[in-house]
Structure formats: structure tokens, C-alpha cells
Design brief:
By secondary structure, the chain is of the alpha/beta class. 34% of the residues lie in helices and 19% in strands. Helix 2 packs across helix 10 (269-284), helix 5 (112-123) crosses helix 6 (147-158) and helix 5 packs across helix 10. Bound molecules: NADP nicotinamide-adenine-dinucleotide phosphate.
Length: 309
């Protein structure tokens, strides 16, 4: 049969997309699975300007011309009214990053939340102990209250963590939590504290109890690589794991500070790979090789990133 006819088509909708790593990541995933598929970028203007083009792509999914789509900024929330159904995770987070067809319905899913948790557990397996088996509560502090914080918050709270959200605009954290829906959560008593301004005075009293600190702000991201989301006149705690969602540069200033303080720390490169791999799993029912996906990332971003399968 003609190769082009059996070629499956996938892609990413967003704006802007110049710096996206999705094409090399997904192409490496398809190759690792031996699947004839391609992945393209679809630059779609923010709505309302981009609505016609967005709907045309969704139609291509419904009629089978496209087998799957990823969604990124600024469409993660705006696309929801045009879908038939949401998975429980996407429903809870009110944002989608992956579209797939099931039983004739166009579904929206969110693989950022499980992608974050999988990568966290990969780097720090001790965290992957069930609440029943460990004798203490795990506590995390999220810096920032935007879209990425939303996925991280859901993942951790749903896994039984006590989570604090510190934002420079406390109101934003309050709205974020109010807009989330934990009714489908497996945890009955989701524990979130959010009235925390991003200041040394409010964060200092928490430090000794924290197991994990996540940077979910863009602070430190290329080109402003000399910025640090951690508050300058506050030492990092003695034992926390540091997870910086920023992955460009390959070692952020926050990660460098953590290493200097003797703390384990990683960037969000693994989460980026994991959320992409989980999208491929939704579309293909097969799990791609993470190592091969990471190898497809340009050297300057991969740096000395270590991923042991
Ligand atoms: P977003 O929706 O714009 O949210 C950013 C958050 O950071 C907001 O709460 C914002 O507050 C806050 N913030 C921005 N600048 C700040 C500053 N100078 N000081 C304190 N807070 C500040 O962005 P996002 O989608 O959540 O993304 C956040 C970062 O995560 C980005 O760097 C993104 O690349 C990264 N990310 C990584 C992955 C991954 O797979 N590794 C996935 C998603 C996102 P204001 O509203 O007040 O500005």
C-alpha cells in the first residue's frame, strides 16, 4: 500500500510555536514504535481571530484526516467549548493539552498533570509511596498560579499531598483553586492552602516542613536566565526536592542554587517529554521510548540531563 495512505497525522495547535520541541519529540516517539506517522505545527491566532482555523482542524479530527492533536498556549482553555467530552483530569483542571477520538466523540485530555507526577516519581522514587504506607504527610510549595501551576496542583493534591500555592497576586491563586473541580478526585480531603503572597515573610515559616518546591513561573527562562524565582534573601530548606518547570536553559539558576545548597533538583525537561509520551499513548495505545525522545532534544537544551530508564 502507498506509504502516504497509511501515514497517520498528528500535530500541535498554539501561538506562537517557533520554539516548540514537539515535532522532534513526537517524531522520535513514532520512530521508537516503528509507526508511520507525522507531526506538524499548526499556528492558530488567539480567538476570536483564529476560531475558523481552529474549528477546521477539529473537523479534520472528526473526519479522520488527523488522528490526534496537542493544544498549547493560548488555546488550552478556549478550545473546551468546541469539544464533545473531557476526561476527568481535563475536567478537574479546566484545561486540555491533548485531543483524541473515542467512540465517535472528540475528547479533551490533560497529560501535563500525570506527566509532571510521572517525571517527579521517576527522579525521586521515594515520593511514589502510597499515603497508607508512609507515616508522614508530604508537603509541597508551588511558586506561581498560572496554567502549569494548575496541572501540578491537581496532580499533587490528587496524590494526597498537602499543597501550598504562593503567587505574587494572591487573588490569582484564589481564583485558580476556585475554578478547579476535585469532585472526580480519588482523594476525599484535598488539602490546598493558597493565601500566600510570594514573599520571604510568608514562605519562611513553611520551609522546614517542605518536601518539594516547584517553580511554575516563567522566571529564569531563556533569555532571562539570570533571574531566579526563589526569594533572594531566603535560604533554601535543608531537605526539599526542587523541581523547576522551566527547561530552557538546560540548568536554570534555581536548579544551580539548589545544587549549591546540596539539594536534588531537576528542570521540567522530563515533564515535557512525559506529557508528550502520554499523549502518544492516548493516540496509539503504545508507550514510546522516553530515552529516544530525550535523545531527539537539541544538545543545548538537553545539557547533561540524565534519564535512566
Ligand atoms: P502562565 O499561565 O503565564 O503563569 C505564569 C505564572 O507565573 C503566573 O502566576 C504569573 O503571575 C507568575 N509569574 C510570572 N512572572 C513572575 C515573576 N516575575 N514573579 C513572580 N511570579 C511571576 O504560564 P504557565 O503556562 O503556567 O508556564 C509557567 C512556566 O512553566 C513557563 O516557563 C513554561 O514554559 C513552563 N512549563 C513547563 C512545562 C513542562 O512540560 N516542563 C509545562 C508547562 C509550562 P502573573 O499572572 O502575576 O504574571
Amino acid at each position: 500500500m502507498n506509504n502516504e495512505l497509511c501515514m497517520r497525522r498528528f500535530g500541535l495547535i498554539g501561538y506562537p510555536l517557533e520554539h516548540s520541541l514537539s515535532v522532534p519529540l513526537h517524531r522520535a516517539a513514532f520512530q521508537s514504535l516503528g509507526i508511520a506517522a507525522d507531526y506538524s505545527l499548526f499556528t492558530i491566532q488567539p480567538l476570536p481571530e483564529g476560531e475558523k482555523d481552529l474549528l477546521a482542524l477539529l473537523d479534520q479530527m472528526r473526519n479522520g484526516e488527523l488522528q490526534g492533536l496537542n493544544i498549547t498556549i493560548p488555546h488550552k482553555e478556549k478550545v473546551i467549548p468546541f469539544l464533545d467530552k473531557l476526561t476527568p483530569t481535563a475536567q478537574a483542571i479546566s484545561a486540555v493539552n491533548t485531543l483524541f477520538i473515542k467512540d465517535g466523540h472528540l475528547f479533551g485530555d490533560n497529560t501535563d498533570a500525570p506527566g509532571f507526577l510521572c517525571d517527579l516519581y521517576h527522579h525521586y522514587p521515594e515520593f511514589n509511596t502510597s499515603v497508607q504506607l508512609r507515616n508522614k504527610t508530604r508537603r509541597a510549595l508551588i511558586l506561581g498560579a498560572g496554567g502549569a501551576a494548575r496541572a501540578v496542583l491537581f496532580a499533587l493534591a490528587n496524590a494526597g499531598w498537602v499543597v501550598w500555592v504562593a503567587a505574587r497576586r494572591v487573588e490569582q491563586a484564589r481564583n485558580l483553586i476556585a475554578s478547579m473541580d476535585f469532585s472526580s478526585s480519588s482523594k476525599k480531603n484535598v488539602s490546598i492552602r493558597y493565601d500566600l503572597p510570594l514573599t520571604p515573610k510568608s514562605i519562611y515559616p513553611l520551609l522546614d516542613d517542605l518536601d518539594l518546591i516547584i517553580n511554575a513561573t516563567p522566571v529564569g527562562m531563556f533569555p532571562k536566565i539570570d533571574d531566579n524565582p526563589w526569594l533572594l534573601d531566603l535560604d533554601l530548606p535543608k531537605k526539599a526536592f526542587i523541581y523547576d518547570l522551566v527547561y530552557n536553559p538546560s540548568e536554570t539558576l534555581f536548579v544551580k542554587q539548589a545544587h549549591k545548597s546540596g539539594l536534588p533538583a531537576v528542570t521540567g525537561l522530563g515533564m515535557l517529554v512525559e506529557q508528550a509520551a502520554l499523549a502518544d499513548e492516548r493516540w496509539l495505545g503504545l508507550s514510546p521510548a522516553r530515552g529516544e525522545m530525550i535523545a531527539a532534544i537539541p544538545n543545548h537544551l538537553r545539557g547533561t540531563y540524565l534519564y535512566e530508564a
